[in-house]
Specification:
Keywords: Membrane, Transmembrane, Transmembrane helix. The chain has 13 helices and 19 strands. It is of the alpha/beta class and 492 residues long. The chain has 2 domains: 199 residues, Spore Coat Polysaccharide Biosynthesis Protein SpsA, Chain A (Alpha-Beta Complex), CATH 3.90.550.50; 146 residues, no CATH class. It has an 8-stranded mixed sheet with strand order 11-12-13-15-16-17-19-18, covered by helices on one side. Strand 12 and strand 13 form a beta hairpin.
């Protein structure tokens, strides 16, 4: 009890003192001491002798890493607006002699008043081309070369200088220049999505080498083949526009416009960025085997349309291209993308190439087998020994268990319920007996395959979809429904 007396007495003294201090006096005291502390902080923390003290306080500061070009991998890092079709300028190289036969290929993908670009001709077109149609890109005539060059390389020099002449057109708000030939079909919606993944403010040279080993050996495995098309970022095209003539003169004996470009860009220290989907099509004959097993990358281009067979049976080349474009207009993300599923009841394997073809096999084949293109085509150059191609293939066969029933796209349409239906009809009778393995059933009676996919959900690049074979009342029609694969789903 005696210990509480001192505490009580101190408390009483403080209360008595506070009663004699007015509120105004208390506020003045607080303001005075605040001013004194502010002056001490200003003097001490800005004096040179106190640098160590400041460094200690700096430990508590939040540090943000600077955004450098090396940290930016996409255009979204450096600009607030995503790359769109308006940011791309296309340049196609043609000639007066070839344009009249090939303009339908360019017009199949060109969108008047939407796409920007030019057709570069070797000379002024004659009166039979006038008036120049609005369905075609505007034309330009390549400027004459003002320096001496090997005449046998004149056409190749004209082609590579088209890069410079395209840049000199002075188009505004350009991020990418895409170069291609007049017998190249481009899939521009897929191109936009691919280029949007790259930083257009840096040097980029994006393309792909040839499907043919011999073509790559003759030129370079690190060269973009211009027929397939390639993309140059704006700063790289700008730098190249002032240096290309000097490069041509520095390497007067380099043949091929594509090889000249790759040689020039090597001097800049710019390598090729390989991107699958650009197709040079250095092949001959029927390329349906390749297109029916397209890898899981968006298709960006098809070249050499005049060299290969029409890609759809019973159609000419121009009609075939326009038919494929009908599917591309409905769903560019799935175009040519391969999907594989099975119908166990009949022991059938299905492989569909969306918007192009569908195959039925009278046997259960693993995906690893069905992913291989059937070698319906021929090598670009037969003087070389195998291997001919940059990819594995499987041979044509008359084995009824391994040879597919082939169907090609007849129509594509959007239906109610946000679905897209592509219909594939039989190319011709297979003319083979049924597969003789136990439990396998003939698919000879199937005349039509319908593939259902989402009209609102685009396919993600690089991911294979799954599918289910659905029962139908009509025994001659098979229905396949595409869907997203479930987590860790195994299709075998």
């Amino acid at each position: 009890m005696s210990s509480e007396k001192p505490i009580n007495s101190v408390s009483a003294a403080i209360q008595q003192s506070l009663q004699h201090i007015s509120l105004g006096t208390l506020c003045k005291s607080i303001a005075t001491w605040g001013l004194i502390l502010l002056l001490l902080y200003t003097v001490l923390f800005n004096h040179p002798c106190c640098s160590q003290t400041m460094n200690r306080f700096a430990l508590f500061k939040l540090k943000w890493p600077p955004l450098s070009p090396n940290n930016a991998t996409t255009s979204a890092n450096v600009t607030t607006t995503p790359t769109s079709i308006s940011h791309i300028v296309f340049a196609m190289v043609s000639s007066v002699n070839t344009w009249k036969h090939r303009k339908s290929y360019v017009e199949s993908w060109w969108r008047p008043n939407v796409t920007r670009g030019y057709i570069f001709l070797d000379r002024d077109p004659s009166q039979r081309f006038h008036p120049w149609p609005s369905s075609s890109p505007p034309f330009r005539v390549n400027a004459p070369v003002k320096f001496r060059l090997n005449r046998k390389y004149a056409t190749q020099v004209r082609i590579v200088r088209t890069i410079m002449e395209t840049f000199m057109q002075g188009d505004k708000d350009v991020r990418w220049y895409v170069m291609a030939d007049d017998d190249t079909v481009l899939f521009i919606d897929n191109l936009v999505e691919v280029l949007a993944k790259y930083n257009h403010t840096e040097y980029f040279y994006i393309g792909m080498n040839s499907e043919s080993v011999s073509s790559n050996v003759n030129f370079s495995f690190e060269m973009a083949f211009g027929g397939a098309g390639y993309a140059l970022s704006y700063p790289l095209a700008e730098a190249l526009s002032t240096k290309v003539d000097g490069c041509i003169q520095r390497y007067p004996n380099v043949y091929s416009s594509d090889f000249i470009l790759q040689t020039c860009l090597a001097d800049f220290g710019v390598p090729l960025t390989h991107h699958r989907g650009f197709h040079q099509i250095d092949l001959h004959g029927d390329i349906s085997g390749l297109l029916s097993a397209h890898h899981q990358s968006p298709v960006l281009s098809l070249h050499h349309i005049d060299v290969v067979d029409p890609i759809f049976p019973s159609m000419n080349r121009s009609a075939s291209v326009n038919h494929l474009m009908e599917a591309a207009k409905v769903d560019h993300s799935r175009l040519l993308e391969q999907t594989i599923c099975y119908q166990r009841k009949n022991n059938w394997s299905f492989s569909t190439s969306w918007g192009y073809s569908a195959h039925i096999y009278e046997n259960i084949h693993p995906r690893s087998f069905l992913l291989l293109p059937i070698e319906t085509f021929r090598p670009w150059l037969r003087i070389f020994k195998p291997p001919f191609y940059m990819f594995n293939t499987r041979s044509l066969t008359n084995d009824p268990c391994d040879a597919p029933h082939e169907f090609f796209m007849e129509s594509v349409e959007k239906t109610r319920g946000n679905q897209v239906v592509t219909t594939y009809t039989r190319k011709s009778p297979r003319n083979l007996p049924p597969c003789s393995s136990s439990g396998n059933h003939s698919a000879n009676h199937i005349s039509k395959i319908q593939v259902f996919s989402s009209a609102t959900t685009l396919k993600k690049a690089g991911l294979m979809e799954c599918c289910d074979v659905e029962e139908t009342a009509d025994m001659n029609i098979t229905r396949i429904k595409l869907r997203a694969c479930m987590k860790d789903e195994v299709i075998a």
